[in-house]
Amino acid sequence: MATRARKGPRKSKRQRGIHWLDGVDLNRLGTGVHADGANLFLRVTRGPDNTVFRSWTFRFSSPTHRVMGPRGLLIGKRRDAGIGALIGKISLQAARIAAQRMHEQILLGIDPIDAKAEARRADVQETQAEKQKSLQTATTLLKAARAYHKEHIEPHVPGKESKQWIKEIETHAKQFLPRPLGEITAEEWRRMLTELYGKVRAVAARVRYRVGLIYAQNVVAGTCASNPITDIAPLMKKVAKRAKAKTVSHASMSHAELPAFIGALRASDSVATRPLELVIQTCARVGEVICAKWNEVDLDARTWTVPSTRTKQREEHIVYLSDRVVAILKEQQRNQPIGSTYVFPSARRPKNHVSPKGILNLIDRLGHGGRVTTHGFRSSFSTWAYSTAQRERPELARQDVIEAVLAHSEQNAVKRAYSRSKFDDDRRELLAMWSAYIEPKQATVTQMPKKTARK
Predict the structure, then answer these.
(1) Looking at residues 179-194, what average pLDDT do you find?
(2) CA nearest to 362, candidates 453, 433, 271
(3) Across all residues in the chain, what is the average pLDDT?
(4) Strand order in 297-298's β-sheet?
(5) What is the per-residue pLDDT across 10-52, written as a single tens digit (0 to 9) for each?
(6) Residue 431 clears pLDDT 60, i.e. is over it
(7) All domains of the chain in start order, with CATH
(8) Cα–Cα distance between 322 and 339 in angstroms, integer?
(9) DSSP state, residue 353
């Protein structure tokens, strides 16, 4: 087969409209746009401070962005894609290679500017994903639990309860502490919690709830992908129903023994005498009593308002003060160390409150160690109220009133609101009745008839 003969000499690249900048000193070109051919341009501009900028630009008609042409036809929109600066970065040869790649993208129907933006977004997403993965790997259960505890628990929960909050997690989820949150599977949590429910249901419920809160915060923060505690919630409901509640009965004293115990208590010179009697008189929890502050007490109104941060139900509780309790507080006020805000300050460190251990030691010294707890005095009141008081004053010692005195939570929201507003006078009277009952009884002396002298 015969080949067609060329007509005339072979044209150079410059003659074919490309590589026009060969042999040109690019650093000496003046301001303006200088074409190299094949849609590649060197743009030279001058800044406000007379600084000269030289950068490469690829001009093209977009295969995806359309505009209306002069004859009413859709044509590719003209766009300029930046390649980079000339000085110290993109040489003429490198700019030509970049322009050639953009030509190939256009032939494939790809807009070079859109492709570059998409690649940049992908790089950012990949970088963020790597950072997120690194962060998730670094966030262990122990680190996340302590961070949540420091931010949300320590500022709002009293010392002993705050320590118990984190201690129960560290004790019962010990095997998971060094592991990243995202690596602990829902199945592992299910097995651990199921075993714990079989031992102590109340503790298992608390651990499950607290771990769920930790996961929820870390999901929002992005340090964990999902919350496995939420995933196993339906299964845990069945486990919780099957588990038997192990109730712990606090050692208590018979209410009939209390008057004699109060008498022995008042004879003691211990600093724990008054707080212990206040525990018995008010039926409050020992933590509420030892942490009581003077700004919570109104002796004129005869009330003590326990803030929600110190009550078990996290609701403010008003305690009505009997005559004996007012007398205790006034006596305590007279002996108050300077600078102390606590009603019952420590003897050694007046800026701190009295220790609960001192109260237990006092019970030991009075001969009741091991068989009576401070919490057990609430049981003594409850037994007296449901038996003796309810028999003597059934219209006063009603269940709602008794439970309101003990600050037990009412599950029914309507009844709870009614109890708060209706039973104030009843609670005050019932506590006064209780105070009178446990008052030490004076021994009565029987007068014997005088013997007559023998005649």
Answers:
(1) 92
(2) 271
(3) 84
(4) 297-298, 303-306, 317-320
(5) 556 555 578 899 888 898 899 999 999 999 999 999 988 888 9
(6) yes
(7) 27-130 (no CATH), 141-242 (1.10.150), 255-438 (1.10.443.10)
(8) 27
(9) B
Q: Residue 403 has which token pair?
A: 């439970």
Tell me how far apart the alpha carbons of residues 139 and 148 are, in angstroms, rounded to a whole number.
Answer: 12
CA pair distance 58, 55, nearest whole angstrom: 10
DSSP string, 405-432: HTTPPPSSHHHHHHHHHHSHHHHHHHHH
User: Which tokens go with 29?
Assistant: 């070109």
| Count of CA atoms in the C-beta half-sphere (13 A) of 63 | 13
pTM beyond 0.90, yes or no: no
Element (H, E) at 62: strand 52-68
User: CA–CA separation, 285 vs 156, rounded Å?
Assistant: 18
- Pair 84, 90: CB distance under 8 Å: yes
Indicate if the pLDDT at residue 409 is higher than 90. Answer: no
**Which tens digit of pLDDT belongs to each residue from 137-147?**
678 999 999 99
Q: Kindly state the tokens that stand for 219.
A: 């999901």
**Residue 174, both tokens:** 């010990």
pLDDT tens sequence across 152-175: 998 887 777 888 999 999 999 999
